[in-house]
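Risk register update: the risk of archive-format incompatibility is retired. Evidence:
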Amino acid sequence: MAESPEQFRGQSRLPRFAEPLRYDLLLRPDLAACTFSGSAAVAVAVSAPTRFLVLNAAALSVDGSSIRFQDVAPTEVTQFEEDEILVIGFGQELPIGEGVVTMNFTGTLNDQMKGFYRSKYEYKGESRNMAVTQFEAADARRCFPCWDEPAFKAKFKLTLEVPTELVALSNMPVVKETVHGPLKTVYYEESPVMSTYLVAIVVGLFDYIESSTLEGTKVRVYTQVGKTSQGKFALDVGVKSLDLYKDYFATPYPLPKLDMIAIPDFAAGAMENYGLVTYRESALLYDEQLSSASNKQQVAITVAHELAHQWFGNLVTMEWWTHLWLNEGFASWVSYLAVESIFPEWNNWTQFLDETTSGLRLDALAESHPIEVEVNHASEIDAIFDSISYDKGASVIRMLQSYLGADRFQKALASYIKKYAYSNAKTEDLWAVLEEETGEPVKDLMTTWTKQQGYPVIFAKLNGQYLELEQAQFLSDGSSGPGTWIVPMTSCCGSYDVNKKFLLKGKADKIHIKDFAASQTADRGTGQNSWIKLNIDQTGFYRVKYDDELAAGLENAVKAKKLLSMDMIGIVEDSYALSVACKQTLTSLLRLLNAYRHESDYTVLSHVTSVCLGVNKISTDATPDLSRDIKQLLIKLLLLAAKRVGWDPKDGESHLDVMLRSLLLSNLDMMRL
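Archived output:
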């Protein structure tokens, strides 16, 4: 049993001898003075002998004289600012079982866009303050003293005292309001158990529009006064996403309402607070007259991402920040699934390869990190909110879903959500459920992808009727790393009608062409009119280096438009990455790019254009004597597509054609001679 508050200094996590069960919070934000005061009554379960309560508090003034535990005053109150903890010591051991600790505190509505902060907005030409919370990852402690770790789930009952003319929102619906002159007291329903980082409060002047899901859940979008028309698109996507996720996870939306609100000053793109999702204005609002097609798409993806968290993250929450990748990677992946269902004409899964490409490029650096990073202290959390957590995380989940099969994967996910609802889980818990439901070696497979950095390049060589495969860690500087993966492989030959799915478990393997080719193709072998493609639909998080014969077959298949869009993208992205790493020649890449000269699909051309810009930059630095000729070749390639789409919008043209015009014209401008 600890005898001194000093013993709690420098600890990475809070002790577990006392845990919160229920918070009863009263907060009084003063928007003029940019301060707030509050009181907390927290029901705590004491499970082991101790005379201390240890919780988090940062940038708060806690009134030590107000603290009581079951009406007993503490003998010592110590706040360690560097550790962001509050240690409350009592004269004797606390009784085992449930008790209530109460305290008063004050703080500042800061301008740092974290904790309980102030944001400015215009109303009738006048600048005003609103009060907003942003608690992820570890900033609820800046609003009220709490056990500010995701595993300390508890119920929350909030009360706010605010000016009568303002709208005051929180996670749960309002139970009642009482008015006292210029102020009103707003009481909210008690929440289900949730983590502190998901608590949310917004106070200001807002308008809203609303709709309902098929189950009758009320959904609202709040905006600054006069901007509600810009919230209609997000509202529609939000309602449809909730309906879709209810079916996909086989679990109803857990709360009685969902609010989404646009905040003028917001550090992240959005935050998935339970029942009150906050967004940067550009991530939620869409103006039919002024906003771009790409902005419309981004609003849809962002809304779908945040609402996926209401199940995967909020209902089932990571046990600790080490498992953040699963929270964010999964929401990124499933947001594309939702938007593909709502807007099938956008070819959203093909555009998902933007995420995969981003992850592949970052993870090819020697300075990358594993998806699953051991987080030892709250101060380390922000460093892992990066493309590895989001983009690589989403991509390996897509790879796993492809390997297991969509139906088996969905059913196993539904079982996982049911098993861990209202509690916490680790990455290994998901693997265990998937393994139990499918009978596949999910843990061994996925551990190779989450606990080591990087990914492989698969060298493919045709030797008679056998395809020989060998893996090595791919690094963009041309060196090879020590990594080895269990790689979910897919392959087809000359047609998508027959394909093979298998695991490459070691450094090398070989397969007979007849195992994955239509009979006539296998008999013919690989000639000018045939081809072999690995990593069908680019579902795998790896690159492929084909030998010259196989590469020539794929180049012909690109020219003849025999390949699916995702495979067209994968081939050119792999070829570019291999050229940068000096694993193949620039000449071969330029020859391949020329095979795309008649391409008109936005999703493919967005990657071809990106590669052209990269080649232009590299050639300027590496081969200055040839750079002008190379640039002319690249411009000629993109001009063909630009002429087809034209300068001016056309009646009835598709969403993707609108995006293609903007893409080509802006990038051609960047490449001017």
